[in-house]
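FAQ: What does the model actually see?

It sees only this:
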Amino acid sequence: MAEHIERREVACANQTIIYQLTRKNVKNVNLRIKPDGTILVSANNRISTQFIDTFIREKQDFIFKALEKNTERQSSPARMPKKYITGEVFRILGEDYTLQVQSGWKEYAVMDGCQIILTVKDTEDISRKEKVFHTWLQKYMRQIFGQICRDTYAMFSENQVPWPTFKIRTMTSRWGSCHTVKNIITLNSRLIEVPKEAVEYVVLHEFAHFLQPNHSRAFYAVVERYMPDWRERKALLNM
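And it is asked to produce this:
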């Protein structure tokens, strides 16, 4: 079924909710709120717009809270442009860590409790501090994501799924992707900011594509088989 996209408005208690309705071959009415505040709804052609508008009104408390959280998150210290100075906050796996910058001949970064200690020769050199920090962060991501991938792969070994090549890069519209022909799974570097349970969901989601290279009912049956609480984990991506 070809997708049809429609912009709709629903009058709620205190304000109007504007959402984007996409008609596609899905079983349920699906609601998603993007980090920029865009409200996305998908449903098949058999479900009336009146039913969907009512669904939005019933979900208005959830929607307003999610939009408020998005605003708070975008304005939180963890999301502000970085200068790599002591006191700045970085979000790692859903938790906030405070940066502590110190001078030293050996340049490195390390987690220590609720802090990230960044040691550089010149504490005024922003570009150097950024490079040292991101070298550490890339290594940390490979370690964390790699372990999650290995744990997930163990669940799929019974299906003769090949061990894939993993890549990490910044993506604007997807948390992950799976190229089943080339046997490549790519994870969004922004996943390092969300709770570990959400990362585990994204990784399992991509592994499931090796068994079902689509988003059909059969695909989500695979996801639910290996992760019954996947909906709760997915919701953490927007927290």
